[in-house]
Amino acid sequence: MKEMSKYISLNRKQATAVTSSFGGWLFDSMDLTMVLMVFSLTSSLFFKGLSPAATAFMVTMTYAVTILARPLGSAIFGHMADKMGRREPLLYTVIGYSVMTIILGLVPTAAAVGADVAMAIVFIIRFISGIFVGGEYAAGYPLGMEFLEKEKRGFWSGVLQSGYPWGYMLGSALTLAMLSLFHGSAYLAVGWRWTFIVGGLIPLVVFLPIRLRLAESPLFKELEAAGKKERSPFKALFTNRENLKAFLQVFVFSIGLFIGYLMILGELPSVLVTVYGVPGAIATEALILDTAMGGIFYIILSTLSQFTGRRLMGIILGIVAIIVDLTIYPAMAGAVHSYGLLMALAAVLALGYAYWGIVPAYLSERFRTSVRGVGVGFGYSSGIFVGGFYPFLVAGLLGVTHSFLWAVIAWGVVGSALVAIGLALGPETKDIDLAKMM
Q: Minimal CA–CA distance to 418: which of 315, 297, 320?
């Protein structure tokens, strides 16, 4: 037990920092889940006069606009995190995205201002929200890792990353709770508004007080005391050869992360419903199980990376993910009429993106303290520039494969391969002393 505490135990300052970082991931996922579910249910209030396909596209865009704003937020708040410290930007981000979510619950519908104006307002709010969420990665990842001894980074990296699947659960639960409280027309009248209002209040009530108690990162304070802060961290990320090399390697890795993730969590319901004819309710249950298993795999496998190394573990998981991509989706064809087998395959499918568990630790270990905020944030978010266009990549490949299933699988293989290649291009990092990387 004493040996285990070496890798897990936290003092009060460390616990506050880790909880704060975990909250950022939790709310990010909860927010995106609510947006997709709510606008799918209320599309008639905002996207009037559109075909079903166009309506589905506009619902997806409420998600995509937020995603595409994240690199901008990571650049802005990452620069701030390397100039003024990690703590202050995290106060701005939690207030910013919470307020924008609450405002989303107050927007006028198409009936009040017209469809074009209503859609424009929604997209502007989502874009601004994405800027604040992008800042979470830039300040939150480094803060959580900079408080920890190197032996603890593996386990707690997996815990931080598991905030994303648990946020999906929380967002789904909140949406379903409002649907049960407001039936039929009542939900279309006010129920959806309360989903966003309550969803925005949660981080303000729960996580803002935690962040107000946050201490500044000890490594940033050392950097500041040594007078080694960069005058322009964002510029230094690209003008310093060592920084640029780390950024480009992380960029390849991050592209793979997003493609591999979306191939499963973004497509599992579509594959089950449209390819195999599985009822929507069962497809949703499969997604929930897959997401929960992903969170468990994050923690277990990231903890193991403390012994095997992040690089080796990530490469192994990239290869495992390729095998999973090529086998599990096709195997589901034979499990359509067996609920237990289908759920078992959905659980195994989570291995297709299990490499995400090492992300907080690995990215923080790849950049010096003076550019860690902007390096981690922009390096990670920049993968969205390619991975964020995943739906269009699948559509483009359909003309070659003539199969939605194999277009999805092919891009999943590409994403997992890029994860393995990206990690192979970089060094091992698990034993790095972050305090010596100024």
A: 315
> Residue 40 has which token pair?
């799918």
Instruction: Tell me, yes or no, whether 311 and 203 share the same domain.
Output: no
- Summarised one tens digit per residue, pLDDT across range 76-103 is 999 999 999 999 999 999 999 999 999 9
Q: Please indicate, yes or no, whether residues 376 and 405 belong to a single structural domain of this protein.
A: yes
Place of tokens 């905020």: 373
11 plus 158 within the same structural domain = yes
Instruction: List the structure tokens of 126.
Output: 């989502």
Q: Do 134 and 1 belong together in one domain?
A: yes
| Same domain assignment for residues 9 and 97 | yes
Per-residue pLDDT band at 162 (split at 50, 70, 90): very high
Runs of H (alpha helix) within 182-309: 185-186, 192-212, 218-225, 233-239, 241-265, 268-270, 280-308
Residue 345 is part of a domain; what is its CATH number?
1.20.1250.20
Question: Domain end: 188, 215, 242, which one?
Answer: 215
pLDDT of residue 53: 65
Q: Sign of torsion, CA 382 385 390 391?
A: positive
Structure tokens at 384: 């969205």
Tally of structural domains, the chain:
2
Q: What are 223-244's pLDDT values in tens digits?
A: 999 999 999 999 999 999 999 9
Residue 258 shares a structural domain with residue 132: no
How many CB atoms are closer than 10 A to CB 285? Answer: 17
Torsion of CA 320, 142, 304, 22, to 10 degrees: -90
- For helices 280-308 and 339-349, the axis angle rounded to 10 degrees is 40
Are 63 and 180 within one domain?
yes
Is residue 114 in a domain? yes
Q: Is 227 part of any domain?
A: no
Residue 41: what pLDDT?
Answer: 83
State how far Cα 132 lies from the chain centre.
Answer: 13
Look at residue 29 in the predicted model and tell me its pLDDT: 86
Express each pLDDT in 24-34 by its tens digit. Answer: 889 888 988 88
Show Cβ contacts of residue 436 under 8 Å, excluding neighbours closer than 6 positions: none
Which structural domain range is residue 159 located in?
Answer: 1-215
Q: Do both 258 and 196 map to the same domain?
A: no
Long-range own/partner contacts, residues 283-287 (CB < 8 A, 24 or more apart): 285/343, 286/342, 286/343, 286/346, 287/346
Which among 128, 103, 59 has a CA at the least distance from the CA of 391?
A: 59
**Those residues with Cβ within 8 angstroms of residue 70's Cβ, 6 or more apart along the chain or in another chain:** 130, 131, 133, 134, 137, 381, 384
- Matching residue, tokens 């499990």: 335
- Helix or strand (DSSP H, E) at 277: none
pTM of the predicted structure, to 2 decimals: 0.91
